Amino acid sequence: MSQYVAGIDLGGTNIAAILMDAAGQTRGWATWPTEAGSGPAGVIERIIALIKFIMDQNGITEQQLRGIGLGVPGLVNSREGKSVFSPNLPGWRDIPVAEMVGREIGVPLIIDNDVRMAAWGEKLLGAGRGWEDVICLTLGTGIGSGIFIKGKMFKGRDESAGEIGHVTVEKDGPRCSCGNYGCLEMYASGRGIVRQAREALERGSSSMLLELAGGNAGSITAATVCQAAVKGDRLARQVMEKTALYLGIALAGLANILNPQRIVLGGGVMGAGELLLEPVRRVVRERAMPLNREVEIVAAELGERAGAIGAAALARQEFILEEGRTKWTW
Q1: Comparing C-alpha atoms, which of 307, 329, 315 is closest to residue 9?
Q2: Domains, the chain, with CATH or none
Q3: I need a surface site. Which of 28, 143, 159, 231 has the fewest CB within 10 A?
Q4: pLDDT-derived band at 311, boundaries 50, 70, 90
């Protein structure tokens, strides 16, 4: 009898679900609106219903489903199977998600932060596949990461390791939401790129950005800045160069500390492609120690499905292949 696992990526706007077989091939994919306003109980009901829906749509029986991987935004205690706090999901504090979902579906479950699940996706089936020492960064609205040492994810004492977005790269930089000043997130996240562009416009810099944003500076996004940079806009290129500089400084430090084989960059900011990647590589070559400066820095491969794929891939490792990639399952 064929065996399958489900991977769930819970977001503030949508819930994505994927089915994966024992060979690591995807069998089904579906997304539903999260309806976060319905509260934790309502969202969990939708997660359970989506799992059952995708199984039914693909002819997978309860006996064939071996386990579930679940990625949840915000702070997650994977040891206790809880969502500790999720800022984009109202009322989500100390919610025993793993127990609630697993009890209803009747299979074991593994839970972690959504960015770490995306990192697992790249590590097992994407740009990090085949490498043991890998750092995966997601450059989105904020910056998240997954750090792999000898093939295992490093989480630290309280599962809060990997906050690369809050490494200081400019001592007198703007204040970050974390309370620190000059964090990498203030420069290399989507929010940081937009901040830099808007501030430059406020200083009177000329740019096609306003035209691309329909004349409204409030509508400028990181994608707008990337688009303008590709078109040769001077201001947008300056923003992307500064972004690459600070990101390269942070990655050079990480390379010196962890000596990784490969660094994988994903998230919406990576829509800039080589426009961002090449200067980042140059900065790392200039600033890292000789043994670390040739670390491979590549773009992620799995795109927006990385979180669900990673959740399913990790569940496959745990519940079908039984390789024990993590300590805590429910």
Answers
A1: 307
A2: 4-121+304-319 (3.30.420.40), 130-301 (3.30.420.40)
A3: 231
A4: very high
